[in-house]
Structures are given as C-alpha cells and as structure tokens.
C-alpha cells in the first residue's frame, strides 16, 4: 500500500470514528428531547412538584438549580481567576508548581460522588451546615475549580508574549500589564470556560445528593429576607436540584406520572445545557470580535 492510499484509509477510519461519536451524541440528545418536550408546558415549569399526586411541576427544582449555580460561580470564579493568573504569570517553574498542577489534575479526575461524600462528611456533619444550598455550592466549587483554573491558565498562556513585552517596554508594571492588556485579551476564552463549567455544574447530581439534599421544601417567593427559613433566597435551606429530582424520580418516584415528569425534566436539563454551550460560543466570538476585530474559528 503506497503512502497516498494509506493516507486515504487512515482519513476514512478517523472520519468513521468521528461519525460514530456524533451519531451517538445526536441519538442520545434526540431521544431525550423527543420523549421529553411533549411534557413541557408553562404549568410544568411554574408549578411545584408533587410527592403523591399527578400533575406536579419543576418550579422549585429549576429555581434551586439556578440559585445554586449562581452561588457556586460567585465562590469559584474569583478563586480560579487568582489561581490561574498565578500559575500562568507568577509561579516559578519548580517542584512546588509542578506539584500544584498535579494536584489540580488529580482533583479534576475525582468522581463527583467522592466530592459529594467529602462535602457531606466535612460541611454537613463536621461543620454542621446541614443539607443546604451553601453546602452544595461549596461541593460544586471543589468539583468545578480544577476545570476553571486550568481554563483560565491556558487562556492567559495563549496571549502572545509580544503583548506583555509591549506593556513592559512602556514602563507599565507587570500587574497593570496583566490587568490592562493580558487579561482583556484572554477574556473570551475565560468567559467561554466559565459558561461551559456552569453547564457542567448545572447538570451535576451525585455531588448534590449528599450536600444540598433530596427535598424541596415549600418556600415563599415573596420573602426576600435571606435569614428567614421560608425565604427562597435563604442559602441554608435544603434544595433539591433538577438533576437530583430526575434521579429521585427514577429511583424512588411514587407519583403516578413520575415517568412523564422525569422525561420533561430531562428535556429541560438538556435544553439548558445546550443553551450554555451555545451561549459560550456566541459570547466568546462577540468579545473576540470586539477586542481584535477578527473572528475565531
């Protein structure tokens, strides 16, 4: 077999593997959407769930997922941003830095259920936070932090050194060069990583079963006092998220229409995650065009 023929064969094999992956992805997403979209309605999205009666919705679970995600990003983004800047710009190339990067890699490969059990033992039991939104947000921070840190580090490293040298040659300090020149250039990649990690956290269930809880108590959406137990903004109340709700329906669901609610909830979850991924690309391209007047691929 000559080089030209072997190249064609190798290319065909690679395209075949890629095609299989794409077909599997479309099959899974299509199956969930086809079976779930017919059950989605305004009543389904705005009604509370029912434990024993049919006709319940996912209002509280959907709000809990969004609230927990916002709280997670508030905690994790500043930590990941500082860590990413340090590793990309200030960390010396020595054994300690390599150890830190190895620890980040190990942490990113931990199963989410292990992170959930860690959060349960430390924050729920040891610190006495109980099952709460705050405990779930802290657990998701541990789950999300390695991905965010590596993304921010790589986005900063992708900025050409010429931009750093230009700032330093003008007498600008290293920190101001980072803040005023390097960070804005890396912003599209950083925002893309944040949005993608948000989609990953939004669909997480295993870590939240042991931290935020499996119950969705009735809350008062007109009560804005975060210290009130009945307030929807209270971060110390238990909060069953949408992903946990799906798991619960398929394992312990006793409602007559548990299968229908599970299908509809799964479709909503997939749609939201797809919107996160689409939003990451659109926002990243928009910011990149604004900064460079160009377009990313």
From TrEMBL:
Classification via CDD domains: TM_PBP2 (cd06261)
Spans traversing the lipid bilayer: 12-34, 66-87, 99-123, 129-148, 181-202, 267-288
Organism superkingdom: Bacteria
Keyword Membrane applies: yes
Matches recorded under InterPro entries: MetI-like (IPR000515), MetI-like_sf (IPR035906), Phosphate_PstA (IPR005672)
Subcellular location: Cell membrane
Family membership: Belongs to the binding-protein-dependent transport system permease family. CysTW subfamily.
Protein name: Phosphate transport system permease protein PstA
UniProt organism field: Lapidilactobacillus mulanensis
Organism taxonomic ancestry: Bacteria, Bacillati, Bacillota, Bacilli, Lactobacillales
């Amino acid at each position: 077999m000559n080089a030209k023929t072997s190249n064609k064969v190798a290319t065909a094999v690679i395209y075949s593997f890629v095609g299989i992956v794409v077909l599997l992805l479309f099959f899974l997403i299509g199956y969930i959407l086809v079976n779930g979209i017919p059950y989605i309605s305004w009543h389904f999205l705005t009604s509370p769930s029912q434990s024993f009666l049919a006709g319940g919705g996912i209002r509280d679970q959907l709000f809990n997922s969004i609230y927990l995600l916002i709280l997670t990003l508030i905690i994790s983004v500043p930590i990941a941003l500082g860590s990413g800047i340090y590793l990309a710009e200030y960390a010396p190339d020595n054994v300690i830095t390599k150890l830190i990067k190895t620890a980040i890699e190990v942490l990113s490969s931990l199963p989410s259920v292990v992170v959930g059990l860690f959060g349960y033992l430390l924050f729920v039991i040891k610190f006495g936070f109980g099952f709460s939104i705050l405990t779930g947000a802290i657990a998701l921070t541990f789950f999300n932090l390695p991905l965010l840190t590596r993304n921010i580090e790589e986005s900063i490293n992708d900025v050409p050194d010429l931009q750093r040298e230009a700032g330093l040659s003008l007498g600008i300090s290293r920190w101001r060069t980072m803040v005023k020149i390097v960070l804005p250039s890396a912003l599209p990649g950083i925002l893309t990583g944040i949005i993608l990690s948000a989609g990953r956290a939004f669909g997480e269930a295993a870590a939240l079963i042991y931290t935020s809880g499996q119950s969705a108590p009735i809350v008062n959406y007109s009560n804005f006092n975060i210290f009130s137990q009945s307030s929807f903004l209270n971060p110390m109340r238990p909060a069953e998220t949408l992903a946990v709700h799906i798991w619960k329906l398929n394992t312990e669901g006793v409602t007559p229409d548990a299968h229908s609610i599970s299908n509809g909830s799964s479709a909503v979850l997939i749609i939201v995650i797809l919107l996160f991924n689409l939003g990451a690309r659109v926002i990243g391209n928009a910011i990149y065009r604004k900064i460079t007047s160009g377009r990313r691929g």
